Amino acid sequence: MSEEQMNDSTFGRLFIIMIIAMVVMAVIIAVLASFAANDVNTRLDERSDRENTQAIAERIAPVGKFSAETAAAAPVVATELTAKDMYVSCGACHASGAAGAPITGDVAAWTDRIAKGIDTLTTNAINGINAMPAKGGNAALSDQNIRDIVEYMIEESK
């Protein structure tokens, strides 16, 4: 037998052994998969449909509940803000003098402004003046709120 024929027969035997090994592995995997599938089906079948439905409902139940009755029953307490409370947003500029704003409490800075009258100061605050935006940039404030804040600033600056 020549060396070439010997190599061909060796290759043929190895090829057949590999095919047989793969078939055996595929059969083993199929048998193990069927055992695993039967085990899962058995566990599911042990429960009744009602128990399965209940278990699913518990897993997907919401964490909290909202009740309109509870929300409606909660008292809403409206608190009136004082001019001093509302001044907090104005204080960002009027406490530091930012953008040329007169500092609240600085009598010299406010004397000429107070002389113009409360109506002029209120109109300027509502509409804005120089670098100050209308209503100090807080559109939520009413005209009366602005007037109250201006009065507070005048009192603090006398």
Short summary:
By secondary structure, this protein is mainly α. It is 67% helix and 0% strand. The protein has helices spanning 3-46, 49-59, 68-73, 83-94, 107-115, 118-127, 143-156.
What does this structure look like?
This protein has 158 residues and is mostly helical. The chain has seven helices and no strands. Helix 4 (83-94) crosses helix 7 and helix 6 crosses helix 7 (143-156). The mean pLDDT is 79.
What is the topological layout?
Elements lengths: L2 H44 L2 H11 L8 H6 L9 H12 L12 H9 L2 H10 L15 H14 L2
Helix pairs in contact: 4-7, 6-7
Question: Whole-number average pLDDT?
Answer: 79
Topology as a string of helices (H) and strands (E): HHHHHHH
Helix content: 55-70%
- CA(first)-CA(last) distance: 124 Å
Given as residue ranges, the uncertain stretches (5+ residues, pLDDT < 50) are none
Strand content: under 5%
Largest sheet: none
**How many beta-strand runs?**
0
- Secondary-structure class: mainly alpha
Shape: elongated
How many whole angstroms does the radius of gyration measure?
Answer: 43 Å
| Count of DSSP-assigned helices | 7
